[in-house]
Amino acid sequence: MAGPHVDEDDLTLLYYAELAEADARAAAAHLEGCPACRGRQTALARLLAMVDDTETPEPDAGFEAAMWRRLQPALRAARQPAQDGVLARFRSWLTAPPLASGPGRWALAGGLAALVLAAFAAGRLWPASPVGPVGPPLAATDTSEALRERVLLSALGDHFDRTEAMLVELAGTAAGDRVSISAEQRRAGDLLAATRLYRRAAVDAGDSNVAEVLEVLQRILVEVTGSPSELSAFELQALQHRIETQELLFKLRIASSAVRNREHRTRRPGREAITGA
Amino acid sequence: MPESDAAVISRVRAGDDDAFRELVERHGRAVFRVAFRVTGRVEDAEDVVQETFLRAYRQLNRFEARSNVRTWLHRIATNCAIDLLRARPKREVAEEPETLERAAAASGDDRPSPERSVLGVQIGERLAGAMALLTEMERATFTLRHFEGLSIDEIGGKLGLKTNATKHSIFRAVRKMRRELQAFIEV
Predict the structure, then answer these.
(1) pTM for the complete prediction?
(2) Which of A92, A162, A268, B97 is the most buried (most CB within 10 A)?
(3) Is B152 exposed, middle or buried (0-12, 13-18, 19+ CB in 10 A)?
(4) How much is the ipTM here?
């Protein structure tokens, strides 16, 4: 029998053709004369062949349509020039009539999220988290950039506030025999789509604080939308308990306040005094 | 005869955005499977699908007509899934050795039935259980090597791991799966 036995790690590398050439030759020579190692090699090959059959969950029948609905606003935003399109689209969303399929203001949240994503795609609009001493107000150096930032931060702050309002209602719902949460679910569904887009933009921009809060939100929104529309007292209390133990409302208030502060710093000095007069 | 992917892409390039929906319809599920294998979570996989098609849309002008659309989308999806794993806080939850021992012991106690269908179901359940035992990083490294065919060096480069760390992550994944499926691989 040539050389030492081939251990499982080297057998794995051999399977994937990742063993260094000299080691692979030595292993092959040993395997030829060692039935025990060959047996382990065969078992490993059988194991990895089984793994090929691993099933993945099959998306629902409406997966493609739902994905297309999620993609459309982002694609629309992606094909419009970021420079002159951002504010025009924001205005159009503000003035657009409510969508037939749902309350307009919740649909607006998704549109604004797409705006954030598209704007981030332009590579320059996700506002940097303040680290260390705060510099001069952004508006003082670039008014149009600051205006865009303010719009984006304002949209994100509103998103946090809307999510908080929905969760407060859910957390405060009195438990009866059966409680309908279908209204909250509809709102959660709209908020979820926007949350995903905001999170993606925040992750891409490296804003880990905002991304973390949005991830926690996303999980609870997925849970709310995926729950039965009527909950038993026990189910409702379990959901409320999770909102409470994860300190979601507290985290949301902190995040909203941080975003509002960042938004405030983008304002031109003296602007409040002028508009407030 | 259905229109080829390349022809659909030409229509999108010519300004027909509805044609892009055709690509989502044709390849969305396959992209989801790639994304799920790497991320291991349905909601993450859905995010990856969305991001994949968005990136594909932005990169349409870089797509070469002779390339395979499916392969191109899979490559984008793999990168998106890796970006997602790298960007989010680590959620490495290493299983306690006792858990693995229990899993291995359970495999030995419960010999599969001879019927192929029953055996298939049992293997599928054990596989799912084994995959659930993997940490996020073990799952990603193993999946990228086994299913997506990336080399260990490539995986290390993409995930920001040293070659040795990448190898050991794959070794741990294989060991966990072997323990879970021991009963089915012994002759």
Answers:
(1) 0.50
(2) A162
(3) buried
(4) 0.74
